[in-house]
Amino acid sequence: MTEKNSVWVFVELVAGKPSQLSLELLGKGRELADEKKKQLVGLLLGDNLQEVAKQVIGYGADTVVCCQNPALAAFEGRIYTKVVEDILKKYDPNVLLIGGSANGRELGGRLSAQMNLGLVADCVDCMYESENDDITWVRPAYTGKLFVKIFTTTRPQLATISDKIFRGNAFDAGRQGAVVEEAVDLGGMTGSQKILGFAEDVAAENPALEVTLENADIIVSAGRGVGSKEGMEQVRALAKSIGAAFGVSKPLVDEGWAPHDWQVGVTGKKVAPKVYIALGISGAIQHQLGIKEAKVVVAVNTDKDAPIFQRANYGIVGDLFKAIPEIEKQFKPKV
Amino acid sequence: MKIVVLVKQVPAVSNVQLDPVTHNLVRTGAPGMLNPADLHAVEAALQVKEQAGGGTVTILCMGSPAATDVMRECIAVGANDGVLVCDGGVRGSDTLATGQVLAKAIEKIGQVDAVFTGKKSLDGDTGQIPPAVAQRLGMNLLSYVESVSFADGKIKATRKNNGGVETIEAPTPVVVSVMETANKVRTPNLKGKMNAKKVVFPVWTLADIALAPEKVGASGSGTKVTELFEPPKHEQGIIISGADEAAAVRELADTLRSKKVI
Questions:
Q1: CA distances from B138 to A69, A80, B115, B132, B206 (A)
Q2: In terms of CB atoms within 10 Å, which of A50, A156, A277, B261 comes out highest?
């Protein structure tokens, strides 16, 4: 069993279970490990990890390293960093994949500073491209116009990964693997951060109540082509009237017209509706990646050269405001 | 309460141009602006200072001499003073190197109770500086906060995390990274505008913050950008051209119905 120089995934727990993003990382990690005939190791921090360790194996890990301590029951950056640093020094992984959640980003940033490691943020792809064990990290750059390839010049190679990019493995209850318990040394640190309360999103709790970007069959999205906040509101009204969810592209959030919650794209929400109607959206790559999973993309834009037409299954070159009344008529659910 | 706010000057155009040969950002001619989230960090810092019954808000910026323009904006809304870290040696720094520079400068400012930052910069877009600085200073981090308040030596904040809204609290000293949605920024008053005009910012070099040149710039960075490339082209779709927009939409809807998409 060689955990050294292998592929590691930090498995973040949410309500005692591996997060969806962690499962996606285990899927990608498995692929990387197989390619270089390495072990895939899941790293778990928390309390009472026996059951969840078995799940991590079922989702693709060869080995799970468990750090159990009541002080690790909730995420606290300083303490988690100390524990993960000790583990990384002991096992010397080739790469550690961390999910780009709020906690994952904090852990990544702290590990980078603590151990003087290069760190790449919000990767949308990663691969071994050469004979050696260097990972090529890919992330969008320059507001999503282009991708960059980045190497980390330090070891272990460290990056945070965006969600909904990779697919997790199907759970296999029969998969065999090893669970290793590691002694936890908190170095005298005690927790000082406190979670006082947690309110689940209303929409997440009652999905039937509201059409959201996450569950909608149809999404209507507005881009810079709306010209003004008022223009955006017209598109929003259209979405409401046809029972669709409403989204926006990044420039509208940057303008302050829309909250970040409405943003579709790599740095916003990634969506997978049956039909995605992009009105006045030019289609920067950061937006296109966010609609990768949409079944059918329809775009209306005055600029026939807009990149969105490369992605759209159906395009209309024209004025979105002239198209709105007919879209309302044609897409309104029949009662 | 002694607060430092980290700010950055970023290119003002959201459609940045790239040099086709060097792959660098074309910064010449592109006007600079204050990173949008940073002004909300300043506002949050001012509110916390007021809730604490007084103190100072100091702006800290790593950048070129021109970056003092955006620092002045922060003075105009009520920050007390500022420091510019300016040294040719920092060029090419990634977040590993930049985090060291900022942490060293905060240590030199000394006795800091809280560090406020924007959630991330528009151009770098990583959000890695807040945790990096927190770790180097041994502080807690409240990241991506949507609201902030201060009472009894503790900062209380709310943030979105794990599919819900978390209310979280940490004692000072602490680093807080702030979302644009966290507050409405106050308008500069006359006194603030006067202060912004006459303020003189001390300029610190790497020597001033006792950081060796090899610790920053390309040599102090742990990442290397090797290639820029265009996104893969998607298979070209169909352009529907009708007599007008309405006709095109009708044809589109007919097509989607025939394919049972809608």
A1: 21, 13, 12, 10, 22
A2: A277
Q: A322: distance to nearest CA of chain B, Å?
A: 6
Q: Peptide bond preceding A156: is omega within 30 degrees of 0, i.e. cis? A: yes
Q: What is the pLDDT of residue B231?
A: 66
Q: Mutate one of A111, A142, A218, A266 to test the B interface: name it (highest B CB count within 10 A).
A: A142
Which value does ipTM take for this structure? 0.88
Q: How far apart are CA A161 and CA A146, in angstroms?
A: 17
- Residues A250-289 pLDDT 10s: 999 988 899 888 999 887 888 989 999 999 999 988 899 8
**Residue B143: which of A106, A295, A313 has the nearest Cβ?**
A106
pTM passes above 0.90: no
Chain A residues with beta carbon closer than 8 angstroms to that of B163: 14, 200-201, 204
Tell me the pLDDT tens digit for each residue of B1-40.
999 999 999 987 655 566 666 666 666 666 789 999 999 9
- The pLDDT value recorded for residue B260 is 84
Q: Is B252 left (phi over 0), alpha (psi -120 to 50) or beta?
A: alpha
DSSP state string for A209-240: T---TTT-SEEEEE-GGG-SHHHHHHHHHHHH
Cis peptide before B173 (omega within 30 of 0): yes
Cβ-nearest to A113 among B135, B180, B262: B135
Walk along chain A (335 residues) in steps of 10 and give the mean pLDDT of each run: 84 93 95 96 96 96 97 95 98 97 96 98 94 93 78 97 85 95 93 86 49 87 96 95 94 91 87 93 89 91 92 94 95 79
CB A9 within 8 A of CB A97: yes
Q: Which of residues 56-75 of B touch A (CB under 8 A)?
A: none
Whether the CB of B92 is below 8 Å from some CB of chain A: the reply is no
Question: In this structure, which amino acid lies at residue B4?
Answer: V
Chain A residue at shortest CA distance from B237: A313
CB atoms within 10 A of CB B236: 12
Mean pLDDT, all residues of chain A: 91
> Cα separation of A152 and A138, whole Å?
11
Mutual angle of helices B95-109 and B129-137, in 10-degree steps: 50
Give me the DSSP letters along A11-55. Answer: E-EETTEE-HHHHHHHHHHHHHHHHTT--EEEEEEESS-HHHHHH
